[in-house]
Structures are given as C-alpha cells and as structure tokens.
Amino acid sequence: MGRATLVALLLCLFAKALVVKAEDPYLFFEWNVTYGTIAPLGVPQQGILINGQFPGPRINCTSNNNIVVNVFNQLDEPFLFTWVGVQQRKNSWQDGTLGTMCPILPGKNFTYHFQVKDQIGSYFYFPATGLQRAAGGIGALNVHSRDLIPVPFDRPTDEYNVLVGDWYNKGHKTLKNILDTGRSIGRPDGIQINGRSAKVGDNIEPLFTMEPGKTYRYRVCNVGLKTSINFRIQGHTLKLVEIEGSHTIQNIYDSLDVHVGQCLSVLATANQEPKDYYFVASSRFTKMPLFSVGIIRYTNQKGPASPILPMAPPENLEGIAWSINQFRSFRWNLTASAARPNPQGSYHYGQINITRTLKLVNSATQVGGKLRYAINGVSHIDPSTPLKLAEYFGVPDKVFQYNLVKDDALATNNLVTTIAPSVVNATFRNFVEIIFENHEKTIQTWNLDGYSFFAVAIEPGTWSPEKRKNYNLLDAISRHNIQVYPGSWAAIMTTLDNAGMWNLRSDMWERVYLGQQLYFSVLSPARSLRDEYNLPDNQPLCGIVEKLPLPAPYTA
Ligand SMILES: *[C@@H]1O[C@H](CO)[C@@H](O)[C@H](O)[C@H]1NC(C)=O
Ligand SMILES: *[C@@H]1O[C@H](CO)[C@@H](O)[C@H](O)[C@H]1NC(C)=O
Ligand SMILES: *[C@@H]1O[C@H](CO)[C@@H](O)[C@H](O)[C@H]1NC(C)=O
Ligand SMILES: *[C@@H]1O[C@H](CO)[C@@H](O)[C@H](O)[C@H]1NC(C)=O
Ligand SMILES: *[C@@H]1O[C@H](CO)[C@@H](O)[C@H](O)[C@H]1NC(C)=O
Ligand SMILES: *[C@@H]1O[C@H](CO)[C@@H](O)[C@H](O)[C@H]1NC(C)=O
C-alpha cells in the first residue's frame, strides 16, 4: 500500500500546487488479490487478501475524486470487485457485477476507473463473484465532503472503520459447493469485527484508542452474509450522523441495528472514566444468538473493561417492533449539505408523481430438488455474456429475455420459479416506487446499484396503495440498502436518471448466489456521452460478444 499511497499523495500535492481549473484529483491503487491464511474466529482457514491484508486497504477519498484501482487476480478463480454505494454515474461498466462486466481471469489484471461523483458517505467494497465474499477481499470506502462544503458536526479527532459481519469457518469454495448441490449454507459460526473476534475476558489488543475528552467517528458497515447485527459501545452513547451518504438528524442511541450491506456513522466521545470499554456486536433475529466484542482503549487507561455488557435490544416480535421504530427515527437533516452546497431537502422527492410501481416478492423454493431463491417467481442466473455487453453489442435476445419479472407480484405465481437471466426494462428518468414484500420468516435486505433511493416506509403486513398515506414524503433517508422484516413490506422511491445496467439484489449472499436478484436496464434514448460513457478500452470481452465487431461509440 505504501507505494500507492505515496503516488496518490504526490499526485494530490501536484494537483494542489497547480490548481488552475484542473481535472478532479486522481487516487491510484495497485492491489494484488491472493489467498492467505486468516482466522477471524480463531480457526485458521484460506482467506482472500488484498496486498496481504484482511480486511483490505481502506479507500479514503473526497467527493468527485477519480479512483483508479489496478487489480491483479492471483487466485485460481475468476474475480470482480464491486463498490457498494458508489453510484457510478454514467458508468455501469465499472460496477463490478457479473451482469455488467466479464470477470478478471486468474493471472490477469484489470484497472477499474471510476469517479465518486457528487456523493459522500461510508461504503465498502467486496468480491461480487461466487461466494468469495465469505473469504475476505472486503474493505472500507470513505468519501469525504470537499473542503468548501460544510459538514453538520465538528471534525472528529479521528475516524475508525468497523467492518462487522457474520462469519463461516468453512471456506468459500466449500460454501459454494454446498449451494451448487442445492443445499443451504446454514447458520454462521460467529461474528467478526475487522477480521477478529473475542469474548468477554479474552486478553486482546484494542481495536481502537480514544483520547480523553475527544470525539471519534465510527463508520460501521455490516459486511456479513446473512445476519443483521446490533452494535453498542459499553458506557457510551452513539450520536448518529450519517447513513449511506445522507447526513441524518443527530439522534442519540444506546445501540443501533445495522443490517447486511448497510453502513452508518456515529460519533462517540471519550467522556467516561479512563479504562477499556467493549465494542459489542450481536446477531439479530437468529435462532442461535452470536456475538463478539472488541476493546476500545482510553489512551490514559487505568483498567480493564467491565465484564457487564450493555443490554441487547429485545428479540422476536418485540425486537422487530423496536427495530422498525428505530428505522422510523432515522431522518434526513433537510438543512445540512450533502456532496453539494445546496441543502439535502431542496430535492422535494415527495412532490414527484410516481410513473411506475413495482411490487417485488421474494421466495425460496425447491426446483428439481435444489434450493433456489426468486423475485416474483424468477430466479436469476448470470449468463456467460454479461447482460450489459449483450445489450451494447446489439444482441440482447441471444442472451436474455426482457421483463420476465412482472411489475406486480400478483401477476405471477411466486411458487413457479423460472430460472433465467432477469432483466427489467426501465425508462430513463422515470420516478419509480418499489415495494418489497417479504412473506418469509427471515429478514431480507435489498441493495440497488447505480442510485440512492428514499427509504419511505417499512411496515408489518402486506402493502396496498392506501399505505402510501403512511409514507415519509418529507425527510426519509436517501440510501442504497433497505431491510424488510419477516411478514413485512418496505417502500422506496428513486429517479432512474443514471443510464446503465444496474443490479437490484438481496444482500443475503446465499440468496443472491441462488437467484434473488435482477438487473434494471436503463437506456438513454439519446445514446449520447452526456448520458453514458463508452465501453472502456481495457474492458475484457467474453461470451458471444468476444468476436463481434465493436459497436460505434457514443458521440457527444
Ligand atoms: C504485487 O505483486 C507483485 C509480484 O507478484 C509485486 O511485484 C508488486 O510489488 C505487488 N504490488 C503490491 C502493491 O503489493
Ligand atoms: C482521509 O481523507 C480526509 C479528507 O481528504 C482527510 O482529512 C483524512 O486525514 C484522511 N484520513 C486518512 C487516514 O488518510
Ligand atoms: C495491467 O497492469 C498493467 C501495469 O502493471 C497496465 O499497464 C495494464 O493496463 C493493466 N491491464 C488492464 C486491463 O487494466
Ligand atoms: C442539521 O444540519 C444543520 C446544518 O449543518 C445543523 O446546524 C443542525 O444542527 C443539524 N440538525 C440536527 C437536528 O442534527
Ligand atoms: C402530478 O399529477 C397530477 C394529477 O395527475 C397533476 O395535476 C400534476 O401536475 C402532476 N405533477 C407534476 C409535477 O407533474
Ligand atoms: C424498453 O423500454 C423502451 C421505452 O420504455 C422501449 O422503447 C423498448 O422497446 C423496450 N424494450 C423492450 C425489449 O421491452
């Protein structure tokens, strides 16, 4: 990492020294992806390392920076990184999902090039291929506000990234093999926090340190495979300041739920007796409770952490009600700036007419004796030609059929599962409402690439149009991930103004791998560089487009 950081630093200084009306700054990274032994739960296993590290290097950048990451795949399998929450404006080419890109083959390298355009916030990256997310290759991605943009809280003394998630002691190939043979990967073995786990009383090195009197920002992401997590810091309250790129009303919490794929930032002040305190992460809504702790140490510490841990929130139905209430307390700070100087609330999403409503229902079924997951009865598979490339080369009908998923779940029999590449044709700039209805007994989380959306409602029961009167049309959080509790629904709204091929997926990795995902094809009728970049020169081609002539590039 040293060299990459140095290059970035030099370039930064260079850019600052020149500042004419220079292009947005560049950050360069060179990443070697290899196998190596890790032991997040104390059991040594094969992990995926980036430049020898797990978790991988943190990308620390500022709005509008150009990020260039040259990835060398030294594994024995195809590989791709996806950049959660990075909106990839006009640039689904770099999204790193199998519907948009050919994977990087073993022994090959590929250079991602993207811009964190007009966004801020706490995000992460992970391997989108196979079950590799279960083995590592995960790291934090922080996007800071530009110097001129006011941030609605004092600059913290330091920032800590916390990547927390459930963990399996089985390797990713074993897990993939279990799914390939039609079975479930079952329950995770534990919870890891930044690659480690511990229980109360273990003699462990601190995860973080705090100076007395100082305030720190903790950016917490759930990078696990299926388990919602609650976290808390013994003896300290948490002031919520940001969720996936939105500045929130700064409420104070004793503990927060963070569901799979979600990130949020809290401020914690070292205003207690100087000693060690436990950071606690525990599972939510699971039959077998799991938890792990880490140490936060005061720099003038005088003693060990108390063995008495802060209370976990309730479980079961009461716990779901607790968690829904907490979701409802998350509000957009309408007067704070986001990536741009104009206040967040100047975008009046509640006054835009809905042009399309999609109601999506998840299901689990056996097809030919094998477990599959679906959306409105369609279980996605990745074809060997990425969907985006098939469309760009003008041969979509050789690879997939549009609109197997119908807008209204009622129009489909959710039990009959079609296994096929799933692409929904969307109209550029439509303002859409998506309802996720969960009839299953497990919690779901959903991630949309390419956009952030307003998370306007979560309620128990089933959705109907009258429920719209319960939407938060004023100050809902704009984000990219939402949870849907068992027997509940959630509603989101967004403008499909980013042309490209965008993955809407469950963030439960077993479900994604076995089909609970689809792609939105959002084509700009103009086929213009104003709306979408051209296929990058370095993009590897595969499948049926490999030998086809390159289409004429988009022009101005
Ligand atoms: C990546 O590995 C190559 C050799 O395999 C080495 O020369 C290079 O320095 C490594 N890069 C980093 C950033 O570790
Ligand atoms: C991350 O970036 C921000 C903004 O550029 C900077 O203030 C901060 O010092 C950086 N942190 C690290 C650890 O490099
Ligand atoms: C692979 O890495 C080399 C430099 O190490 C670079 O010149 C080349 O562009 C990279 N290939 C791709 C496809 O990005
Ligand atoms: C919202 O942001 C404004 C502007 O930065 C700030 O002054 C205010 O304290 C924030 N309000 C809350 C409730 O967090
Ligand atoms: C929304 O729809 C209503 C009723 O159809 C119409 O009167 C209004 O002008 C529309 N608003 C916008 C902003 O298009
Ligand atoms: C997709 O939608 C656009 C506009 O909404 C339409 O022109 C086009 O024919 C549709 N394509 C398919 C394959 O449905």
From TrEMBL:
Residues 1-22 form the signal peptide. It comes from Cinchona calisaya. The keyword Cell inner membrane does not apply. Residues 32-146, 159-299, 398-525 form the Plastocyanin-like domain. It comes from the Eukaryota. The keyword Signal applies. The lineage of its organism: Eukaryota, Viridiplantae, Streptophyta, Embryophyta, Tracheophyta. It holds the Pfam family Cu-oxidase_3. CDD domains: CuRO_2_AAO_like_1 (cd13872). This is L-ascorbate oxidase homolog. Belongs to the multicopper oxidase family. PANTHER family: MULTI-COPPER OXIDASE (PTHR11709), OS01G0816700 PROTEIN (PTHR11709:SF27). Keywords: Glycoprotein, Signal. InterPro entries: Cu-oxidase-like_N, Cu-oxidase_2nd, Cu-oxidase_C, Cu-oxidase_fam, Cupredoxin, CuRO_2_AO-like.
